[in-house]
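Purpose: get a first structural picture of the assembly so the mutagenesis plan has something to point at.
Setup: two entries, given in the order below. No constraints added.
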Amino acid sequence: MTRPMHPTSPMGTMARAIAMAMALLPVVLSAAVPAHAQGSDDGTTIAFRVGKVITMDDEERVINNAVVLVQNGRITQVGRARAVEIPAGSRVIEQPQAWLVPGLVELHNHTAGALGDLNDLVYLANPGLRSLETVVPESPNVKRARAGGVTTALLIPGSGTNITGFGTIVKFSGPTVDDMVVQSPGSLKVAQAGNPERYWFGVGRTMMNYNTRRTLEGAKAYHDAWVRFESGESAERPRFNPIYEDFRGLFTWDMIASVHTQQYQVVMTTVDMLANRLGLFTVLDHSTFDAWKTAPLVLEAGHVMTICGPRAFYLDPTQRRFNGIAARWWQGGLRDLGINTDAPVIPQEELSYQAAMGVYYGWKPYEALKGITRIGARALRIESRVGSIEVGKDADFGLWTGDPIDPRSQCLMTVIDGRVHYDAAVQRVF
Amino acid sequence: MSTCPPVAGRLRRLALCLVSAVLGAAGPAWAQAPAPPSKLALTGARIIPVAGDDIDDGTILIEDGLIVAVGREVSIPYDAMEVDCTGLVLMPGMIDPDSFRGLDIPNENIPVVPFLDVYDAIDPSRLYFEDALRSGITTVHVMQGPNCAISAVSRVVRPIGLSVGEMTIAPEVALKLVTSPRSGADRMEQMFRLRDAFARMRYDFDTLAETKYEEAQKKASKPVDVAPAEARRRGADLVRETDLGDPIRNLVRLSRGAIIPFFHAVTATDLRNAVRFAEEEKILDRAVFIVGTDAHRAIAELTRVRRPVVIGPALVERRVDPDTEEIVETFLPAVLHAAGIPFAIRPDPDGSLAERYLTYQAAVCVRGGVPRDEALRAITLRPAEMLGLADRLGSIEPGKRANIVALTGDPLDFSSWVEHAWIDGVHAYDRSRDHRLQRLLQAGSTGDDESGDDAPAAERTDGTAGAAPAPAAPAPGQRPGRRERIVE
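Result (structure tokens, whole complex):
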């Protein structure tokens, strides 16, 4: 499929959009050709000439009047427009007013498939399940997510039991599942408390935590036995166990524990059990209510990240005052702080709006933007590939009319692996 | 922590600060508070040590969280910080002998759960702990409730700390064995559950012991040439605690004396069943009986076994004679005292009556004929003895943990307030900084003032890590709070 990229003519935005719409009318109407066909990995260079690039790189550079070059799905150059030479033959996307922002990263998404696939409430802990098997490419949810500038997500099972299965890290590209998957299993979904209580006739925290710990300790014993065998320390070949096998990446930090956890005691237990005792790379999802009061414990543990949401504030009855959740975590010293939507609880495309809510209740705008880009990538341990606009990284970004944290801003174009997967000028989603 | 008075919050952070210092970690800004003094002298107070006679104008010297000297003539080291307690009464921190209030729910939906641990459900942020500290309780025995047959293993904690680890005084202390029928069960079914659990434990243990013996013989290239019963007997010593599976481990430890059986027996019938069961299972020598006011009908059994009991919150049994309509009252503490049975008292933290306060419970005992000394022991030293912690808790004596409560007057005088509490020598409670109490006591206030700043230091970026200043006390005759809106 070959289609012209944006014309570089000096036409106004509206005129350009109309022109594009006219040109692409047959394609749009047929709807048989999805947007992901746009772009190339044939060696062609695409140049994004924009008003501002929020790089989210290690120096946290913000480059005004910048050019970003993309080739074969990777970023090849980032710099001031006058310093970057656009190679002849490049396709140039000229948006001198727009912001180029890293693709947004969502840590807590349940829209992989139908809601019937969300929870298998068989046991109190259900390892061995994979959200991979529920992924539907190019679903309406995927398309709307892209329109909100979201490029990467962790698709996870629900929180109906203490362990609901393994998550899948995907990009919202297509058209096949293979095209989407970045890593599977990409996480272990643990729900520490706050839903699994409803299992059977009701379960309390002594039983839930006992069962979760026992399951994880069983998996760790399995992993340790294999490590001993593989390193030659033991000649005894462990018996293969299809359930525990998927856990192994958890103990080498090739996979994270993403934990549905909220409220003081529950988050305290997550940090104690998963991070401190089992040594897992732990991501606290939700982290709402008064969970921020555990900040000293989280800081002490070291390898715990906090991804708040979808609730942005908590009315503390013991203090009788509102607390902005992200702001409180920030004040508590947390710097690895992100935001999630729990889609479809909050629609995936409103990730930036959730971050804006965090700011409304006292957080910092730049940190909120970082929280849904670089921090999200760090929490998924794929920071070397996504989350920032740097040379060598995947060309995943959104072209915005302004700061994504400003609710008035809209995403004009979403690029994943150097391909334009959403273009508002072609077909606006909202 | 919002859920503890600010001073307790500071203690928590100090504790954490110390941990950071030990680990050599760079402390975050909020950990810059000064460490608590390692030596502390509480001077000028009347001291009720519980062990021994009261001391007027006495001194308690504390070093590294332990009491090192008590008396009138205690020389204060040059490097000790002195706290003038003139006019106050110092007594040991009180002990709640049985409480499920720090947990998410009292019981699981499974009747026999000795493989579980309350560690997994204790919530340091529960207001119960703050309330306990406010009323002078410095130690809480957290057990699951009685709606089970065998509970999770319990834990003795301080009502302060950011995590359960910081709170813990003693882990895996007791199991609750309930002989009163739980919800949905009758008395026979309830007792069957207990017998069944112990029978299974013995069967599993014996099987393991036999296996262990056979393994040992095989390893030593010796034949197994004894009868199975003898093999089980010889193998019993070879079984280590780590060999035991989760379902039986704590029951084996209980029958070996490492875990305390706390029987919960509400009626006299339940109590007789509990005593019989304890004797049959040979676990009487450490047994404690949590009883109801009906227990006086089983006083013969109690007198025979002479084991301590936990009573309360109700202390008086009132029965109406169906013929005469005469009300017959029996005051259980007096019956127990007359029979020479040591007892500890539970408070009623959920109630709005004075039973919330252990000092009130002790005062009621005195009214009912229990000597003052024994009444005070019932809320301090007795529970410590039952929990096997009398070497550390329960009285003001050299060598014990410095858990001390300062009251404005005699503890049995109900107009006395808890003014301060020290836990392990750290100033954990200060009434002048207890904003929630002050708000409660502001008559006519709707409490919409801004005085209650008890947010954690974690949110303070200026490194002060301290409590907010106490709000100014209202002038006499002035109504604080909304006074500008009150037309009188």
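The radius of gyration of chain A is 22 Å.
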